[in-house]
Design brief:
CATH topology: Purple Acid Phosphatase, chain A, domain 2
Number of helices: 8
Shape: globular
Number of domains: 1
Strand order of the largest sheet: 3-2-1-11-12
Helix content: 25-40%
CATH class: Alpha Beta
Distance between the termini: 28 Å
Number of strands: 12
Order of helices and strands: EHEHEHHHEEHHHEEEEEEE
Largest sheet: 5 strands, mixed
Oligomer: single chain
């Protein structure tokens, strides 16, 4: 059995199937982890979600910002954006079932895997975490959003989800501001400062780092004991400079590569777009 973690799929169903065939992935034998942004921007979001739902017993998924955007669109709280490719999915006769399946997925996943070098802890999130969040705190805060998303009042969360405020985490935050801040760190962060102030406007690579800010992973402390797996930031091209902080979005939807890593030996596999 092997455990593979794949970068942002974004509705690129054919690419995903090609990559899984390359490693002879079998859901009866292997496991697949997905770092979020399962859908949108690529051409086949519907097939992607149906496939992942069908292998759910062999799957670990965390939600990304595009996945949450789809849920908000389905409820009428977000407009179709120029680059969105969700129409077929929204019109599907099983759209409601797929939304329900997505709403049950977490924002963070933690697991100990037996690797060739012994047991290793892995934390998977879509984008990142705030400075000084521990593993325990990350999961506690992620759970708050998951409870809101799975509860009977989930539409209130989806309606209030958008926005860049609050721009910094404080334990005293409450209500929808608190949930929005948690969501922004876990599913949208790229740059922040040492206090955790977010810059959510700059989406390019490190050459565009705003003054006074750094990539979020320059401040985290979790990777001292746990390997962090994330996607979201294609402009990094899979490079962080930190062995235990693994960037897996390599921009397949933009014509570059779709990448997965086998956790047991940290071996990478990729296909080109």
């Amino acid at each position: 059995m092997s455990t593979y973690v794949v970068g942002d799929i974004q509705g690129c169903y054919k690419g995903l199937k090609r990559l899984l065939a390359k490693v002879d992935f079998s859901p009866a034998r292997d496991r697949l982890w997905c770092v979020g942004d399962l859908i949108n921007r690529g051409p086949r979001s519907l097939e992607t979600l149906r496939f992942l739902r069908d292998i759910d017993s062999s799957l670990s998924v965390v939600l990304g910002n595009h996945d949450l955007h789809f849920l908000a669109m389905h409820e009428g709280f977000a407009q179709n954006r120029t680059k969105d490719t969700l129409s077929q999915l929204l019109d599907a006769n099983d759209c409601e079932e797929l939304c329900e399946w997505l709403r049950q997925k977490p924002l963070a996943h933690f697991e100990k895997i037996e690797t060739e070098n012994g047991p290793e802890d892995f934390l998977m999130v879509h984008a990142g975490i705030a400075p000084n969040w521990s593993i325990k705190k990350t999961f506690s805060l992620a759970t708050e959003v998951e409870i809101a998303l799975r509860g009977s009042d989930y539409r209130t969360f989806l309606k209030s989800m958008y926005g860049d405020y609050p721009s910094c985490w404080h334990d005293s935050l409450d209500g929808q501001d608190r949930l929005r801040a948690i969501t922004n760190y876990i599913t949208r962060v790229r740059f922040c400062d040492e206090l955790g102030n977010l810059n959510l406007q700059v989406k390019d690579g490190l050459s565009s780092t705003p003054e006074g800010f750094k990539p979020w992973y320059e401040y985290e402390k979790i990777s001292d004991v746990t390997t962090i797996l994330f996607g979201h930031w294609a402009a990094l091209e899979g490079r962080t400079g930190k062995r235990r902080v693994v960037a897996l979005d390599t921009g397949y939807v933009w014509g570059r590569k779709l990448t997965l890593m086998r956790l047991e030996d940290h071996k990478y596999y990729s296909i080109s777009g």
